[in-house]
Amino acid sequence: MKKILSIAVAMIMVMALSVSVFANVDLTGEIGTGLNENFQVAIPEGVDVSDGATVTVNVKGTSDNTAVRFYLTDSADVARVTDVAVVEVVDGAFEATFDLYCDLSGAYGGSSEPSVLQVKGPDYATPLANTTFEVLEVVADVAAPAETPAETPAETPAEIPAETPAETTPAAPANTGIVLAVLPMAVAAAAIAVSKKR
Question: Distance between CA atoms of 65 and 120, rounded to whole angstroms?
Answer without folding.
Answer: 10
